[in-house]
Structure formats: C-alpha cells, structure tokens
Specification:
52% helix; 22 strands; alpha+beta; eight-stranded antiparallel β-sheet; Calcium-transporting ATPase, transmembrane domain; eight-stranded mixed β-sheet; 5 domains; 32 helices
Length: 839
C-alpha cells in the first residue's frame, strides 16, 4: 500500500535532477527569427533583393523601388501574420496556473504545479483541477468532471486505483492521488504540444493561385535565361542587363499575394463586426468552400445548460403541488448541478431545514433530500427512472402504461426524463449501521428536461443543409442522446447512428464508409474525432469542425477549418481559425456569404493580374524574337499599380457574393489567352511601327526639338553618339506599347463589370454596380495627367510624343476593344480549340 506520508525533500530533489519534474516550456516549432528568415529570404525575394541592390549601386533608385517594393511589402505582411499566429500558439494552456496541495514528509503544503515531481502525493478536493496524470490512493471517493477532455457532461466516479487525467476537475469528494505522468508525458501537455504545432491550411483558391504563379515563374525563368543570354551576346551594358532582369522578374504576378492579404483583412473586419473573430486570415474564404460541417454537442450545439420542459404528475398529485415540492427540494440541497439549476429556474419554493441528504453521484444517478418539519416531512428523491424503479412498490404507477408511454414520448423528443419520488415519514437515508439504505418510494411525477440549444442553431443548420452542406454531430455522449438533440436542431429523424466502440471494431475501409454515411457519432474519443475528420478529408471533403473543449483540439487542428466557441477552453480558442463571439451560430451565415464575396472579388483580381502578366511576357518574347530592343523599362512596370493593382483592389472591395466556380482554371484560360494573344500581336505591330518611325525621324532630324531634348535627357546620350538613334527609337516604342497596354487594361475592367450592354461578352449580363465603370474612366483620366505632365511622365517612362502618334495609339486601342468583344461574343477561341461553350 502506498504511504500517505508522501516523498521526502531529498527524494524530490533527486527526481528533479533526474528530469522527472513537471517543469516544461512548450514552444511552437519555429522561432521569430526562423519565421522572418523564411518569409523575407525566399528564392524569389532573394532575386529581387540582388536586382534592387544592383540598380541602387548604378544610381537607378526609382527602378529599384519599383522592382523590389511589392515583394518586400508582401513578405513583411506575411511575416507579421506568422508572428501573430506564433504568439497565439505560445499562449495555449490547457491548465490554469493554480497552486496545488502536495504531501511531503507527512505535511501538506501548497506549491506551484511546476514543482511537482513524479510519485508526488497530491491532495484533490471539490473545485480543484488535476494538473498531472495519476492514480487515486486511499479511501476517498471523487466525482470528476472530464467533459473538457471527453465531451461527456456526466460526472465520473473515481476510487482507489482509478486514473485521474490532467485537465479534469473534482466536483465532489476529497482524496489523494499519486503523480504518474508529469511534464511532457501528461495528457494535457501532450495535447498542448500537438495543438501548438503551426499549420496553415490553404484554401482551394489559394492553391490554384499558387499553382498559376509557379507556372508563370517557371515560364519567366526559362525565357529570362534565354533573353539575358541573347542580351549578353549583343554586348549590352551592365545597367541594361540589370534593368532587363528587373522587368523579367516583375512579370511574376506577385501583387496577387498582396491582394489576397488585403481581401482577407477586409473580410475578417466585416465578419468581426457580425460576431465572429477571424484568427486565420484565409478562414472566411475557407468557410465558403466547406461541404461537410462537423460539430461537437455539449457546449457547442448546446449551451451546456438544461431547461425544465415539463412535469407529468403521477397518482393524485397535481402539477402545482409537485412544482412546489420540487422547488423546495432543489433550493434546500447543499450541492447543485445542471439539473437542479434548470428546476430552480422553472419552479418556485423556499429553503427548508434538511435532516439528511445524499448528493448526486454518477454511479447512483440520483440525489435525495430528507425534511423533518411539520409543513414538509419525508424523504424525496430525484433521479433516473431505471435506477429508482426497483425501489417502487410492486404494482404501483411504475408499471402504469401511461407512465411508460409518457417516458417514451419525451425520450423520442430528445428530452431527459427523471422520476421524482418520496417516502412519507422517513427522515434519513441511513440504516442503523450508518449505511445508505433507500426505502420504498411512492412516485410523485415524471420530470422532463431539454438541452438548451445555442442561439440560431436551428436556423443555421437549416440554411447550411439547404446549401448542400452535410452536417455531422460528433460527441462523447450517448448516440441516442445526441440523435435526440439532432432532432431538436432540425435534422432529419432517419439519420444513421454510430458509436465509438463500433468504430473501434471496424476496418479502415469500413471506418471511412461510416464516416461518410453516418450523421450521429456518439461515445467518441478525442482521437476518434480526429480520425473521423481525417477520413472525410481523405475522401476529398472540405471539412469544418466546431468545438469548445480540449477534446476537440485535435479534430480542429486536423480540419480544413476550425471553429471554436468563445466560452470554450483557451486551447480550443487558440487553435481555431474562427471564434464565435457570444457563442452564437448567427455569425456563420454572413461569414459564409462574405467568403463567397471574397472569392468573387479575388477571381476578378486573378483575371486582371494573369492577363497583364501573360500579355507582357508574350510581348517581351515576341519583340525579342523580331530582333528589336527590350520592350519595357523597369519604371514602366510601376504603371501596373494603376492598370492592375488599384482596379483589382476595388474589384475585391466591391465584389458581390457569387456561386463558386468549380472550373476557374478553364475560365481563366478562356479569358487570359485571347487577351494576351491579341494584345501581343497588336502590341508587336505597334512596337515595330513606332520604332521604325522614331528611328527614321531621329536619323533624318525630323523629330520635333522638344521631343528630341526629352529623349536625350532621358537616355543620357548626346546627338553625336552613334547609338543615340536606336536608343531613342527603343524608348519611344517602349512608351507606345506601355500606353497601349494600359488602355487595354482599363477596357478589361469594363468587360469584367459591364456598365452597359455594349461591353457584355465576357460577362453575359450588365452589372448593377456602376462603380467599376466610374473607376475605369477615372483611371483613364489620371493616366492622361501622368502622360501630359512631363515630370510625372518621365518618372514612369512615358515621354511626350507627336499628337498624331498618341491619337494613333488610342485608335489602335479602340480597334482592340472591338476585336476582343467579337472574340468573346462569338466564342471564337472556344470554337477554335473545340472547348465547351458555356451558356
């Protein structure tokens, strides 16, 4: 037998020196330095930084800012996000930091939990939390609340030899336990370590964007090597080589990542005002992709509170009289639980002097109070019918068909049914030897209680079911109890039930099949919750998990999207992607709509970015192939802020919720390739025409003096320099192509959100929102300011041209507009490739 003297101080010091103490400092996998290094010094960023340094060393500061700016800002935002995630993960703690009572050398003393060592003897009393795993010793009996770990609301009785788990609470009793697993080995710390592991689940849209960006990077990298090799063979200067490298790397649509960050931040702010705290930036968009919603029961679907639903009097009793006795019963008892709190709220009564009492215990499943007063005398018991039925007299109402029928009727409605009975004239629960002895009881009434659903649960489940989202309830409670609650929440009555023990007996394939087919999962362990989510993910489902307790942490981490209740454990809140403030499901519906809106806006941004990136890349390749100078200057790449960046931002901001496109990649191909190919062909023709015209004008001294001086100042060459005509012609042609590409970008905005019927083609209907059209006109006018103000135009590489040339570029842009409109309206691209034409 283990001595209740506890360890000696010398033994404690020895064990601590052996590493058997409870001191543990769990951290996330990466340090702040590792996070910063991973985000700032990616392969792409390193290339940008090298180019930026080279440009600065050559005095091209503006070019360096243009080339490196967006990549650096994006990296900084990503770094800050991960810093925030790390801080949240480091704050996770399953256990509060109470002082615990330990017995050492026969004396009790309060210590910090970190001072516990293995085999320490700890005392636990009502209200205490178990801080390390161990086994009960001695004669004490404990009633433990393990709902935070298992999800089951019932109290669990513990006696000598039974295991106590860290994270559970003692509700009643007083006893001792020996620490067996401390530090990293304890249940709570093992779960904490798992919860702290950093993991970011990318949404389907993010995955597609990453794929497209990587393809563009690969394409750009291959042709960059070829173009730079050709430039070296031509003997271009170092500064020109660096400028070309800057332009080539700028073809990667890196601004898309910045746009995603902005879109998520705006969505998170909007959803936050509606009652949901977004902790993972992509969570709002992720919510709109779910097709399976798994939820815990206790504390999640329910408010972890009971409501007094009804009283069914037995014998000659009236409802009013039974209510009065019940009110006195719960008010006079010394200990309260959810059941007594519900009855207390639903009845009236007074506190009376108690002669004897038996508190509720999960093993007994009943509680009792005895009164010894003139106005209230006798022994009263409230508990489960099956536990009290043997104490009812034979032939009594316990066997009455009405009683049985009422029990079954309430049970079918998902209600908890209790029996209220009494023994008149009896004032104690003990026999002459002091042992518990329940006398023969006379039934007074059946009492029904219902779990209180969270606000807006029924409405939210109904709407999600209407959207085709499959609802699954996973709980540690009985499958039949969970199924009854599911009916209250509005789920179909013919749902399939599976229990944890049944799952444990299944093969891997049977388990996966049950995960898909069943709706109610009861008596499920935390590990089985995680396995169920994993099984659904393996079958291609996009799974959201809602929970509140520590037993939900693993499944929340595994799911595509984790959602926690505000009143849940700190561990659950910290690992969740979304926290429902005020524990209300109401915020999920607007969050779902906001996710659809974000996807709609990001799709528009994706069209613009990829159209621009593909167009400029094809132009670079085509112009290089015809043997002329490089078609863009780094300063002209900054124009994408006005042609793509600002439009994409406002398209995201103003977007309306739309049905998610399952074939967005096909849609992108149908949009981007016609735009890129048509712009490349017309752009190359414009470049060749303007290059030859400018070269001839400079060589024949036909270029107006004002324009000549502007070009000479920009290139830094003199009129006597032999390379001057080619340099001036290149700069002139570059400017013409940049103007043309900018105008086509403004027109694309009109096609994406048609303000009038004329611009329908890509979109088949006229947009109700006219703001994108106003934005396109505003950007066009702003572009005129940039072009016609010499200092601004020079900064962006747009030098003044003869009026006829400028008007010719505008006319070519209008021709381009009619051509792309015809291509889309007549589906010429799809017909040529034999693609399916969408209605």
């Amino acid at each position: 037998m283990i001595s209740l003297e506890g360890l000696s101080e010398q033994t404690v010091r020895t064990k601590r020196a052996q590493g058997l103490g409870n001191d543990i400092n769990l951290k996330t996998g990466r340090s702040y330095f590792d996070i910063a290094r991973a985000n700032l010094f990616t392969l792409f960023n390193n290339i940008l930084f090298v180019i930026g340094v080279a440009l600065i060393s050559m005095g091209r500061v503006n070019d360096a800012i243009t080339s490196v700016g967006i990549g650096l800002v994006n990296a900084c935002i990503s770094t800050i996000q991960e810093f925030r995630a790390k801080r949240q993960l480091d704050q996770i703690s399953l256990l509060a930091k109470p002082h615990v009572v330990v017995v050492r050398e026969g004396k009790e003393q309060a210590i910090d939990p970190t001072e516990i060592v293995q085999e320490d003897l700890l005392r636990v009393r009502s209200g205490d939390q178990v801080v390390v795993d161990g086994a009960v010793v001695g004669e004490g009996l404990l009633e433990m609340d393990e709902s935070l770990l298992t999800g089951e609301p019932n109290l669990v009785r513990k006696a000598a030899g039974d295991k106590l788990f860290s994270g559970s609470f003692c509700v009643t009793g007083d006893g001792y336990y020996v620490a067996e697993k401390v530090g990293k080995e304890s249940f709570a710390n093992q779960l904490t370590a798992t919860a702290r592991q950093m993991s970011i689940v990318q949404t389907p849209l993010q995955q597609k964007i990453n794929l497209l960006v990587k393809l563009v990077m690969l394409f750009v990298a291959v042709f960059s090597v070829l173009i730079l090799a050709a430039a070296i063979l031509e003997g271009l200067s170092n500064i020109r080589l660096v400028q070309i490298a800057a332009v080539l790397t700028g073809q990667v649509p890196y601004g898309l990542f910045l746009m995603i960050v902005v879109a998520y931040a705006l969505g998170a702010a909007k959803v936050g005002r509606q009652g949901a705290l977004v902790q993972q930036t992509n969570a709002v968009e992720s919510l709109s992709n779910i097709n399976v919603l798994c939820t815990d029961k206790t504390g999640t679907l329910t408010a972890n509170r009971l409501l007094l639903q009804g009283i069914y009097p037995l014998g000659n009793e009236s409802t009013a009289s039974v209510k009065g006795v019940l009110g006195d019963f719960v008010r006079s008892a010394s200990a309260r639980n959810q059941t007594s709190e519900a009855i207390l709220t639903g009845t009236s009564g007074e506190v009376r002097l108690v002669s004897d009492e038996v508190p509720f215990a999960s093993a007994r499943k009943w509680s009792g109070v005895a009164f010894h007063q003139t106005e209230r005398q006798g022994l009263y018991v409230l508990g489960a019918v099956e536990m009290l039925q043997d104490h009812l007299p034979a032939g009594s109402a316990s066997l009455d068909s009405d009683l049985v029928r009422q029990m079954h009727a309430w049970a079918d409605q998902g209600l908890r049914v209790l029996l209220f009975a009494h023994a008149p004239g009896v004032t104690t629960f003990r026999n002459s030897t002091g042992e518990l002895n329940l006398p023969t009881l006379a039934p007074l009434a059946l009492v029904s209680l219902s779990d209180e659903l969270r606000p807006m649960v029924k409405e939210t489940i109904a709407e999600f079911t209407h959207m085709g989202i499959v609802i699954k309830i996973i709980s540690g409670d009985s499958p039949h109890t969970v199924a009854a609650l599911a009916k209250q929440a509005g789920l179909s009555p013919d749902i399939k039930l599976v229990s944890g023990p049944e799952l444990a007996e299944m093969s891997a394939s049977e388990f996966d099949q049950a995960a898909v087919e069943a709706t109610i999962f009861g008596r499920i362990s935390p590990q089985q919750k995680e396995q169920l989510v994993d099984a659904l993910l393996r079958q291609g489902k996009y799974v959201a998990m809602i929970g509140d307790g520590v037993n939900d942490v693993l499944s929340l981490k595994k799911a595509s999207l984790g959602i926690a209740m505000q009143s849940g454990s700190s561990a659950t809140r910290n690992v969740a992607d979304i926290v429902l403030l005020n524990d209300s499901f109401e915020a999920l519906r607007p969050a779902f709509s906001e996710g659809r809106r974000i996807i709609s806006g990001m799709s528009g941004a994706l069209y613009l970015f990829l159209a621009r990136s593909t167009t400029t890349t094809l132009l670079i390749i085509a112009v290089t192939m015809v043997g002329l100078g490089f078609p863009f200057d780094p300063s002209q790449m900054a124009l994408t802020t006005f042609t793509v960046g600002i439009p994409a931002f406002f398209l995201t901001l103003w977007a309306k919720p739309r049905t998610i496109q399952t074939n967005i990649l096909t849609s992108l191909v149908k949009f981007v390739l016609p735009v890129a190919l048509l712009t490349m062909l017309t752009g190359v023709a414009l470049y060749m025409y303007d290059y030859n015209n400018a070269f001839t004008a400079v060589s024949d001294v036909n270029l107006p003096r004002r324009n000549m001086d502007t070009y000479l100042a920009y290139t830094g060459l003199s009129e006597d320099d032999a390379t001057m005509p080619a340099a001036v012609a290149t700069v002139a042609a570059q400017g013409s192509v940049s103007i043309f590409v900018s105008y086509t970008a403004f027109m694309l905005l009109l096609f994406l959100e048609p303000p009038i019927r004329f611009f329908t083609g890509w979109r088949q209907s006229v947009s109700v929102d006219k703001r994108p059209a106003y934005l396109a006109v505003g950007l066009f006018l702003l572009f005129q300011v940039i072009y016609f103000v010499p200092t601004i135009g020079s900064y962006f590489g747009l030098l003044s041209k003869p009026l006829r040339v400028y008007l010719g570029i505008f006319a070519l842009s209008m021709i381009w507009m009619f051509l792309i409109r015809t291509i889309w309206r007549q589906h010429l691209f799809e017909r040529f490739l034999g693609l399916e034409i969408e209605a």
